[in-house]
């Protein structure tokens, strides 16, 4: 936001953390002093940047120390102020967060110089110390991308590429879908301006053509829910431009993208979600093979929802996503949603969720311990973690995430093989070099067992 003021930030913080507004204000005052006389390329006083970063964080209900670190994130880089100084005035956590963000801010994912490789490794492994460092960095990158027009064209390309390759996937992996979508679209606009424009126009036309029909459906769904005593919200979401681009590239026609439009239904609890599913299937016919239960089978980035694709009365398709309010917060903000739920204790819970439930993180730790060479480590992360993923099922129906092109050999260490080591996919015996396909059901059996 261009005309963001400190009062707007403080008002936001006041909504959920009345008692610590003064503390935040003192971080702003210090940042203001230290950035005095510095300007952004847009010509605005520099303070507008940390203020925007802190505001994005406050929108996610970030804790006090994270907001303070957001305000101070560039002071070590741009002034003589020290980490010790921050610790003395504020506390150790704020100092560590600012220091963590500073250490990774010089990184450059798109060049191969030794220093850049080392820094890139730092950003990726800093998830391990405190996931909040990465979240502040994402908020920082988001504001820099939103104001990319003021940079030189070479810088724009470099930042857009790095955002597409590193920051958008990172946002996805911590589950922050809203940030991921925005980062992708801005990057795409700079990387392929003509394609961006074309698809963006197509999206507008298609939205206006289907608007009336979908609005009618939404009204009908809402009415049916009310009649059945279910309280909830019904909204529409249109797929982001880059998401549409990827579908078109795979050969889909824009009218056949089954989730171009999503009707999002939020309900109070899980049993209401399943009841809504039954109700809408009676209103509109579902496409049978498009139903997905991510409530019982969460995605590997913790996403939960029921997905079903419906036939609209005009013959087009519309995806419907049904979930609880809590699940919707996680879809929007990912790990950061726990700030809202757990306030002061959120940090420990976020760190716990990341290390226990996020397959991305597990794989990262594996790669970190297997590769001492920075370049090799980054290549592995790029090829194994940030590339296109597929999902397969183990014998119990758990979802396993793997890079496209993975084989039985790659999955061997990821699933329970205590039953044996004879690979069976979808009920058929396969060789260890079998290349896994999406939704394969993989199990390992003892030799001689029937399958
Ligand atoms: Mn910054």
Textual characterization of the structure:
The protein is an alpha+beta fold. Helices cover 56% and strands 11% of the residues. It has 20 helices and 10 strands. It has helices at 6-16, 21-34, 48-59, 64-72, 75-78, 83-89, 92-105, 114-129, 131-146, 153-173, 177-191, 193-227, 241-249, 270-283, 325-333, 337-342, 346-357, 359-370, 374-385, 408-411; strands at 232-238, 261-267, 292-293, 306-311, 317-324, 389-393, 399-403, 422-425, 428-429, 442-445. It has a 5-stranded mixed beta sheet. The chain has a 3-stranded antiparallel beta sheet with strand order 9-8-10, with no helix packed on it. A two-stranded antiparallel sheet has the order 6-7. Helix 1 runs parallel beside helix 3 and helix 7 packs across helix 9 (131-146). The longest helix is centred in the middle third of the chain and has 35 residues, at 193-227. The protein is globular, with a radius of gyration of 24 Å. It starts with 5 loop residues before the first helix and ends in a 6-residue tail after the last strand. The model has no long low-confidence stretch (mean pLDDT 86). Bound molecules: manganese (II) ion. Manganese (II) ion binds next to loops.
Strand order of the largest sheet: 1-2-5-4-3
Our estimate of the beta-strand percent is 5-15%
The outline comes out as: globular
Number of strands: 10
Biggest sheet layout: 5 strands, mixed
Cα distance spanning the termini: 59 Å
- Helical amount: 55-70%
Radius of gyration: 24 Å
| Number of DSSP helical runs | 20
Order of helices and strands: HHHHHHHHHHHHEHEHEEEHHHHHEEHEEE
Bound molecules: manganese (II) ion
**Which parts are unreliable, with pLDDT below 50 for 5 consecutive residues or more?**
none
Structural class: alpha+beta
Mean pLDDT over all positions: 86
């Amino acid at each position: 936001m261009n005309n963001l003021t400190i009062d707007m930030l403080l008002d936001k913080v006041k909504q959920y953390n009345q008692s610590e507004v003064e503390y935040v204000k003192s971080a702003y005052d210090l940042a203001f002093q230290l950035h005095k006389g510095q300007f952004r390329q847009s010509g605005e006083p520099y303070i507008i940047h940390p203020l925007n970063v802190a505001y994005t964080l406050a929108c996610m209900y970030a804790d006090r120390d994270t907001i303070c670190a957001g305000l101070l994130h560039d002071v070590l880089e741009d002034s003589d102020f020290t980490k010790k100084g921050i610790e003395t005035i504020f506390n150790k956590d704020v100092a560590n967060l600012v220091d963590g963000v500073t250490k990774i801010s010089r990184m450059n994912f798109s060049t191969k110089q030794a220093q850049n490789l080392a820094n890139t490794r730092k950003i990726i492994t800093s998830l391990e110390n405190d996931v909040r460092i990465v979240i502040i960095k994402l908020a920082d990158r988001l504001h820099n991308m939103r104001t990319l027009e003021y940079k030189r064209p070479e810088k724009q390309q470099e930042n857009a590429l790095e955002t597409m390759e590193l920051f958008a996937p990172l946002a996805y992996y911590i589950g922050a879908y809203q940030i991921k979508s925005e980062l992708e679209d801005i990057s795409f606009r700079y990387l392929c301006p003509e394609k961006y424009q074309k698809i963006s126009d197509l999206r507008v036309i298609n939205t206006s053509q289907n608007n009336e029909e979908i609005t009618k459906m939404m009204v009908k769904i809402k009415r049916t829910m009310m009649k059945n005593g279910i309280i909830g919200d019904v909204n529409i979401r249109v797929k982001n431009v880059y998401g549409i681009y990827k579908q078109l590239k795979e050969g889909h026609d824009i009218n056949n993208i089954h989730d171009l439009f999503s009707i999002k239904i939020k309900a109070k609890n899980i049993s209401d979600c399943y009841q809504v599913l039954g109700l809408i299937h009676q209103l509109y016919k579902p496409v049978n093979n498009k139903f997905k239960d991510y409530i019982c089978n969460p995605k590997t980035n913790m996403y939960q929802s029921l997905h079903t694709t419906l036939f609209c009365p005009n013959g087009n398709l519309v995806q419907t996503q049904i979930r609880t309010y809590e699940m919707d917060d996680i879809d929007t903000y990912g790990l950061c949603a726990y700030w809202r739920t757990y306030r002061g204790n959120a940090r420990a819970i976020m760190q716990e969720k990341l290390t226990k439930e996020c397959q991305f993180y597990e794989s990262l730790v594996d790669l970190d311990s297997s590769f001492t060479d920075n370049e090799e480590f980054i290549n592995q992360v790029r090829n194994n973690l940030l590339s296109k993923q597929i999902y397969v099922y183990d014998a119990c129906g758990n979802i396993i995430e793997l890079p496209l092109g993975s084989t039985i050999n790659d999955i061997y260490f990821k699933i329970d093989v205590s039953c044996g080591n004879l690979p069976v996919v979808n009920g058929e015996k396969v060789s260890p070099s079998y290349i896994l396909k999406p939704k394969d059901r993989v199990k390992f059996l003892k030799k001689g067992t029937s399958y």
